[in-house]
C-alpha cells in the first residue's frame, strides 16, 4: 500500500530537526530498519555527506540506519531496493535537476506506488505534486522539466505563509503568486503551513497537524481546509 | 550611448505607479515621444491590454505615447524601431518565456546597446542581469533558458527584503537563497531595495535612490553599498 508523508517543513519554530514528526514517523516507518536519504536539495549549500550526517541521529532513535543516495554505485537500483525513502528540503531547482540527472523520478514513483514508505519535507514535499511550479525557491539551477513525482494529483506549496499584516513590502504575497500560477496551470494548489503534513495511505489523503491548510483552485476563492480533512479527491 | 534604468519596484509603499521615478524618467526619456511597452510579465495575470492601459497615463505626463508590443504585427521590428522600451514587472518566468517565444532577447539587447533608452521595473529589471536565476517569482511557466539580457555583468534581486526580525517562519531568508545561488553560479548579485534603482549611462553604472543596496559575492560576506556608488566594474 502507498504510504507517503508530505510535510511542510522539517523543523518547526523552537523545535529540533524533525522532532514534531517523530511519533508519526515511528508509525510510518514501522518494520523498517534501513532508509535511503536523498540529500540533493542541499539546504544552504551543505554537502551531501554533511546533510546525511544531520539526518542519521534522528532515525537512529527509531532504530533505522540511514544511507545517502550519493553513497550508492547505482542510485536507481538503490531506490528499487530501498526499504524506505526520505527526500530532505533545500532548493527544489537543484533537487529536481539532480533527480533528472540520475533518472530517478520514475524509479521513486514506482517504488512509492509499490509500497515503499516515503517521507518528504519542504523541497522533498514539493516534488510530490504534479509539478514543482509552486515552489518558493530561487531558480539557481535549470532542470530539464518542472514535472515532478505526482504522488498526489495536485501541487503543493510548503512553508505556506499568510500575507504579513501591515507589511510595506510591495513584492507579491504567496497568495498572489499562486493566483498567477492558476492563470497558466489548472491543478489545485495546497498551501501547507509549517507544522502541517499530508498523510497518504493507499488512495486516502488526510491533512494532519495542528493548523488548517489553504486551498487554491483555478477560478475560485481560496479556502481554509481544517486538519483531519479528507483530500483524496482533490485534483 | 547605452541608457538604462533598472528599478527594484514600479511602486513604493504609499505611492502611485512609477510616481517616485517620474523626475528621473523625464530626464531618461527626454526627446522621446513614443515608447514600446512590454507587458508580458502580466502581474496578477492581468491582460496585456489592461497592463498597457495602466502604463499609458503615467507616460502621458511626459508627453510620451505608449504602445504595447502585443499590438505590433512584427515584435522584433517594433523593438528595432522603438524610440524607447519599458518592460514592466510581474512574473519573470512568464516574461522570459514570452521573450524567447518571440525571439526578442537579442533584439532588445541590440537596441539598448545601440542607445535606445530602456526602463525595467521588478521582473523587467531581473532580465537586465546575466540570468534570471535570482528572481523571487514562482516558476509558473517553463522558459527555454534562464539566460537574460546581460545589460549589466551581474545578477539582480529586485524587491530585496531584509530578514524579518523575530520571524518564526522557517523558510529561507532572501540572503540564504542568494547564498545558495552562489554554490552554483559565480556572478555577483545586487539586492535592490524598493525605491532604489541603477542608472546605466554608457559604461557607468550608479546606484540611485534613498536606500543602500546589498551586494552578494561568491565566497564573501554580503556588504551594504551606499547610494551614489559606482558599480561599473561589478562582475
TrEMBL record, chains A, B:
GO-annotated biological processes: proteolysis
GO molecular function: serine-type peptidase activity
Keywords assigned by UniProt, alphabetized: Hydrolase, Protease, Serine protease
UniProt xrefs under CDD domains: GAT1_Peptidase_E (cd03146)
Pfam families: Peptidase_S51 (PF03575)
Keyword Hydrolase: yes
Family (UniProt): Belongs to the peptidase S51 family.
Protein name: Dipeptidase E
Species assigned in the record: Flavobacterium terrigena
Lineage of the organism: Bacteria, Pseudomonadati, Bacteroidota, Flavobacteriia, Flavobacteriales
Amino acid at each position: 500500500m502507498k504510504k507517503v508523508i508530505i510535510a511542510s517543513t522539517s523543523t518547526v519554530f523552537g523545535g529540533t530537526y524533525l522532532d514534531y514528526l517523530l511519533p508519526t514517523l515511528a508509525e510510518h516507518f514501522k518494520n523498517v530498519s534501513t532508509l535511503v536519504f536523498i540529500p540533493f536539495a542541499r539546504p544552504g549549500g551543505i554537502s551531501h555527506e554533511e546533510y546525511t550526517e544531520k539526518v542519521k541521529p534522528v532515525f537512529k532513535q527509531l532504530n533505522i540506519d540511514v544511507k545517502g543516495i550519493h553513497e550508492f554505485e547505482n542510485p536507481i537500483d538503490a531506490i528499487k531496493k530501498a526499504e524506505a525513502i526520505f527526500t530532505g528540503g533545500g532548493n527544489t531547482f537543484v533537487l529536481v535537476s539532480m533527480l533528472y540527472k540520475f533518472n530517478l523520478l520514475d524509479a521513486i514513483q514506482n517504488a512509492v506506488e509499490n509500497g515503499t514508505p516515503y517521507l518528504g519535507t519542504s523541497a522533498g514535499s514539493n516534488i510530490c505534486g504534479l509539478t514543482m511550479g509552486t515552489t518558493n525557491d530561487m531558480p539557481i539551477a535549470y532542470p530539464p522539466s518542472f514535472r515532478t513525482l505526482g504522488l498526489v494529483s495536485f501541487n503543493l506549496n510548503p512553508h505556506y505563509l499568510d500575507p504579513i499584516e501591515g507589511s510595506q513590502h510591495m513584492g507579491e504575497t504567496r497568495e498572489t503568486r499562486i493566483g498567477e500560477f492558476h492563470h497558466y496551470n489548472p491543478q489545485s494548489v495546497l498551501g501547507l503551513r509549517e507544522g502541517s503534513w499530508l498523510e497518504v495511505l493507499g488512495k486516502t489523503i488526510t491533512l494532519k497537524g495542528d493548523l488548517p491548510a489553504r486551498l487554491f483552485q483555478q477560478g475560485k476563492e481560496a479556502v481554509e481546509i481544517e486538519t483531519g480533512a479528507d483530500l483524496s479527491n482533490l485534483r
